[in-house]
């Protein structure tokens, strides 16, 4: 997953949440836009994505 992919996901009205934050990176749960059901999980250690996520636990949180 790239930052562009994650931004497209957000722009479509869907959301994400941090499922796990560990030494291998962050696992994101990708949630549907109509009810929040998790449809996929992505493990990433991409510093660009990590910077975008910041300290947020979900895409609905205000960026720091």
UniProtKB/TrEMBL annotation:
Name the domain of life: Bacteria
Q: Write down what this protein is called.
A: Uncharacterized protein
Record organism: Gordonia lacunae
* Species classification: Bacteria, Bacillati, Actinomycetota, Actinomycetes, Mycobacteriales
